[in-house]
Structure formats: C-alpha cells, structure tokens
C-alpha cells in the first residue's frame, strides 16, 4: 500500500474540508399563525398548508364516520328498548 511522501499540512487539510460544514435548516413562518415551520409542510399548530385547512378537512371526514357509527348504535338501542 502506498504511503504519502509528505505530511498533509493543516492548511491543505482544512481547504479540502471546507465543504463538510453543517448548514442551518431552512425555516419559514406559517402565513396564518406565524409559527416557524419547515417549507412545504403542514403547520402543526393550525393545520394549514398553501392557504387550505388540511387537517380540519381530515377531522371532518372522521367526524362523519363517527356520526354514522353513533347512528347505527342508537338504532340498535332503540330496537332493544321497544322490545322491553
């Protein structure tokens, strides 16, 4: 295996490693609530993305499913009460 003829100086080593630095993450503000968020992500505080309430829409869909289940449960209870 080859061995370097001369030692690499501190300057040469540091010049080579200048691109191996860490950058600060890009952070933007939510247009609705002002919470700091990463770009192209839904705001965790208010649920907005591109001026649309994304998380609220999902919650409404879940409510409809829950309401349907409650209706089925109440209908079964009503039939039991009428039998007694």
Q: Order of SSEs, N→C? A: HEEEEH
What is the CA-atom radius of gyration, in angstroms? 30 Å
Number of E-state strands: 4
Tell me, rounded to a whole number, the average pLDDT. Answer: 79
The oligomeric status of these chains comes to: single chain
Query: Strands across the major sheet, in which order?
Result: 1-2
Q: Which structural class best describes the helix and strand composition? A: mainly alpha
Number of helices: 2
Strand content bin: 5-15%
Helix amount: 40-55%
Poorly predicted spans: none
Taking the sheet with the most strands, its summary is:
2 strands, antiparallel
The end-to-end distance, rounded to whole angstroms, is 93 Å
Query: What would the principal axes of the Cα set say about the shape?
Result: elongated
Question: What's the short version?
Answer:
With 84 residues, the chain is mainly α. It has a domain at 40-84. The protein is built from two helices and four strands, in the order H-E-E-E-E-H.
